Type 11 methyltransferase (Paenibacillus mucilaginosus 3016), 213 residues
Amino acid sequence: MGTFFARHYDALMGWLEKRGFTRIRANLLREASGTVLEIGSGTGLNFPLYHGCDKVVALEPSEVMRRTSMKRALIAPVPVEPVGGDAQNLPFADASFDTVVGTLVLCTIPDPLRALREIRRVCKPGGTVLFFEHVRLEHAALGRLQDWLTPAWKRLCDGCCLNRSTLDTLQQAGLEIKRTERYYGDIFVTVVARNPEAGSGDASASRTGAFES
Ligand SMILES: C[S@@+](CC[C@H](N)C(=O)[O-])C[C@H]1O[C@@H](n2cnc3c(N)ncnc32)[C@H](O)[C@@H]1O
């Protein structure tokens, strides 16, 4: 991963955060409780917004972003522990977390389905899974425009794909989607989902920790 995007992420996001992203994040994170895992926590933009939970483990592979996030962790309203790692191969035991959070991250993880299977493994059965993501539009022409823009966008923004059908991937992983809300002409979506009991949904999600790559 290059460091330009990581070093300038907060500046690049500033306008969007002020125009509504921070409010969307805050509304979603009200659903977080207990011990929380945040995947791809970046520079820690969510850290000030956690209130009703015991602790947040914040997993972020970019050292540059993680270092920035540590400053936010120190002043967060709840204890936040930034750790390195890859969401596709989570370094946690089965059923360790009450809530798993991801914001603007399934667009970038190389294999989002694999990461979701890992999330199901480390989240307790019946636990909560929260996402804020941008998705491929159903409008045919706009969806094709996203497809066309993605290769260049991906290079500019450290692997971010504009055209992922993330709601389909969440369902493929076997998560039970309880509620979605769309924003900005349907391009952004928040998802409140439940991790069903082991054995339901995606056949390949097991609680043994053994996953296909
Ligand atoms: C667009 S940034 C979003 C950062 C943060 N979640 C936010 O809402 O501001 C995408 C994030 O995904 C992270 N990421 C990329 N690949 C990942 C992986 N395999 N596992 C976990 N995080 C990953 C990046 O390092 C980056 O922090």
Q: What stands out?
A: The chain is about 35% helix and 25% strand. Strands lie at 34-39, 53-59, 80-83, 97-103, 123-134, 176-183, 188-194. The CA atoms of residues 33 and 53 lie 4 Å apart. Residues 4-194 form a domain with the Rossmann fold fold (CATH 3.40.50.150).
